[in-house]
Design goal:
The chain is α/β, with parallel strands linked by helices. The protein is about 40% helix and about 15% strand. Strands 1-7-6-2-5-3-4 form a 7-stranded mixed β-sheet, with helices on both faces. Helix 2 crosses helix 4.
Length: about 240
């Protein structure tokens, strides 16, 4: 715990923005003190250059713990998040400050998120997705291919940026669904693990038909599931 608390001074700061940076500085000690975090696979996150990170989604605590993991390996994540969050005071400041990307679902602005994400990738940023869009609906917490949206697959095919899969487990115990305050004690074990970039090289250059995008999406979700299997120490059904 001391070692991870000490990481605060070494976290990347340039480009975080004032409010996003303040949120990180306030929440980092909270995560380190009230969780027992196990982080593995950080070598798969490139230290610079464009990268897409795709993770499973279990709890409202996920953006906090996954951000901590990515920051600890030298990258500042830019999230795609539902546009309604920009209407919440303070949250709006944090999201705007951190250059996160609003997703306007079912509106004429729906394509803006894709365009802004492409721009971030072209600028060499780390763009982070929860492909399922909301919490995993599987009652046992396994990622759902059927639930996954195709955004990260489309971006990967369009930009050829590497897609690093992340599997994490334990946040659902820290902050269960429909619970507004985290369960701090006893300290919850949270495991986060990244895997090698998903191999999509044979799909590059192909017309992004529904079948090609579906294949890319299935590979990405399979890679996330494989990391989660390792974190959980069990096989998905």
């Amino acid at each position: 715990m001391r070692a991870k608390l000490a990481l605060t001074a070494r976290l990347p700061r340039r480009g975080r923005g004032f409010w996003f940076s303040l949120a990180i500085d306030l929440l980092w000690p909270f995560v380190m003190v009230f969780t027992r975090s196990s982080w593995r696979g950080g070598q798969h996150l490139p230290s610079s250059g464009p990268v897409l990170v795709a993770s499973n989604h279990l709890s409202f605590a996920d953006p906090v713990t996954v951000t901590a993991y990515v920051l600890s390996h030298g990258r500042i994540p830019r999230y795609l998040a539902k546009a309604s969050l920009w209407r919440i005071p303070v949250v709006r400041w944090v999201l705007s400050s951190g250059k996160h990307i609003p997703v306007h679902r079912g509106s004429t602005k729906a394509t803006d998120a894709y365009r802004d994400a492409v721009r971030s990738i072209e600028d060499g940023q780390c763009v982070l997705f929860f492909p399922e869009g909301t919490f995993t609906r599987d009652p046992h917490g396994w990622p759902s291919v059927a639930q996954a949206k195709s955004g990260v697959a489309r971006l990967a095919l369009a930009t050829r940026a590497p897609v690093v899969p992340i599997g994490h487990w334990g946040t659902q115990h820290l902050l269960p669904r429909k619970v507004y305050f985290p369960k701090l004690l006893p300290r919850k074990a949270i495991g986060v693990q990244a895997g090698p970039p998903v191999d999509l090289s044979d799909l590059y250059g192909l017309e992004p038909t529904a079948a090609v995008v579906r294949e890319a999406n299935e590979r990405i979700m399979a890679a996330i599931t494989a990391q989660l299997e390792s974190v959980r120490g069990e096989s998905a059904p």
